[in-house]
Amino acid sequence: MHRLTGIGVSGGVAVGRAVVLIQNAQAIRFRLRQTQIDSELEALASARDRSHQQLVEIRNGIAQAGNADLASLFDAQLLMLDDPMLLARVEALVREERINAEWAVQQVADGLGEIFSRLEDPYLRERRGDVADVMGRLRMNLRPGRATPRDLLSAVEGACVLVCDELTPSMAAQVDWSRIQGFATDAGSRTYHTAILARSLDVPAVVGLHDASRRIAAGAIVALDGESGDVLVDPDEATLTTLKARARRPVARSSGEPVNGPAQTADGVAIRLEANVEFPADLHAARAAGAEGIGLYRSEFLLAGSLDELVDEETQYRAYRSLVEGMAPRPVTIRTFDLDDQQLASRSRPAAARGWTGGRGNPLGLRGMRLSLSRPDFFRTQLQALLRAAAHGSLRILLPFVSGVDEVREARRLAAEAASVLAARGDTPPPVPLGIMIEIPSAAYAADLLAREVDFCTIGTNDLIQYCLAVDRADERVSHLYEPLHPAILRLISIVRRAADRRGIPVSLCGEMASDPALLALLVGLGLREFSMTPAAIPVARRLLADIRADDMRRFAREALRLPTVQAISRRLLEVLSVREVTRTT
Ligand code: PEP
Ligand code: MG
């Protein structure tokens, strides 16, 4: 037995086998049963074959296009992949240490990466990238179609304790907490979330363990005490029996658990929680999470692949109608295409991965409402499809990337035209609320002017933060400056909320910020009562809300709006939420 000591941030005892999750590498390590070893080795062999085939196809395609130099790079990757030593090393780890193949591949990749980076010859040193590429491909092929942590963890059996380098809210939202008894992290949390997250999830947690994810072997028995901060690894039988008796009974806390009724704060303030969705298949998750509606449907995700077919009115109409009917009687807010001209030209999916980062062309260019207004036919087709779908349920139209009043007026004019086209066809649409995303700083400052022109608005903090703070999150040199608790962001949110209230129009917030329980508490203090978030975050948000008082948060928000720095705001936020402050240790 050995003992690690960190900082207990969420009470209770959790006992289970360690599952190690390395957030940055998105890799998971667990111990195989003896009987699983053969099938793991078979999976490894198939992954190698798939990788080989893919590399041959890529190389041939490039060679045919006449780029011999580039093609030879893939020859080199094929040689690496086919090197019998490489696979033998991975197989040995799987067999001897009984670890899952994916982790074994990562171990071998790290080892080779080290060797290459120490080489004198700069050309050879550069080959480190190729090694990483080949090994990454092998890992990807080991779990085709299984990309999320939730999928990864689905291979793990029995009660377990998650040991990770760090746990972000977005990662936590994807984990099935009905199976994970608790978690331990290397990082402390400068981030205000980890502790709040653990409490909202109602799982015991210890943070600030420095290197637990390296020191604790996958499959080891771990007992953690979220009060004292102790983490016992492979405790003796007697200790284990005592700890098991103190362990929490697993409660149903899967993110898919059905929940009914609106969310409420401890002092009885109703908070509306809706879901952000990208695909019609997400409707099921939204309903299961108890979403009161769809607060944001990112319609550009409809345009996967064949834009020509999908962009026609009939196809769009059917898609919107099925969303509205699928969610009925709850309302659905459909955002018109938030594409940029490059995406439109390349007819590609808006982002290779789901979510809001990546895939865009010039972020300050012809995007969202600007693009739609520059292509009135394209926009009118979408508006006609939306207006027709509105006859089948509760639908609101949301305009993205609006910077000022002119754009809204022009969009309204085109919506009226679309309604006339339908009326001429004998298909008079019902009145449909028209709203805007507030995600450009100019729109936030002009919220009072915009509020006179629209029926509702929703604050898109993902874009608002990056444009207000001038931070490109993809640039790691400045990404740490992307900070939702920046005083300017809190002030902008407050400006928008007050402008909407004065005008008496609904205002919500649909950026990622709302999925972070600590930030959600502050947003309630800033007066927001409606949020839209990824479905998996809704049950956690609901639990957090039940624990806070809106009036306490209102008092705190008033104070926060006068504090000068992110640090001062987050420190006070933790105090108000009665959570010990923990400083980052890794
Ligand atoms: C936002 O910007 O906050 C938002 C919700 O829109 P998207 O993430 O689709 O850009
Ligand atoms: Mg946006």
Structure description:
This protein is of the alpha/beta class. It folds into 3 domains: 2-28 and 156-252, Glucose Oxidase, domain 1, CATH 3.50.30; 31-142, Enzyme I, Chain A, domain 2 (Orthogonal Bundle); 263-536, TIM Barrel (Alpha-Beta Barrel). The chain has 26 helices and 18 strands. Strands 1, 2, 3, 4, 5, 6, 7, 8 and 9 form a 9-stranded mixed beta sheet that branches. Helix 9 (193-201) links the parallel strand 6 (180-185) and strand 7 (205-207). Helix 1 (37-64) runs antiparallel to helix 3, helix 14 packs parallel to helix 17 (376-389) and helix 23 crosses helix 25 (550-560). The model is unreliable at 250-258 and 348-359 (pLDDT under 50). Bound molecules: phosphoenolpyruvate and magnesium ion (MG). The site of phosphoenolpyruvate has 11 residues, from strand 12 and helix 21.
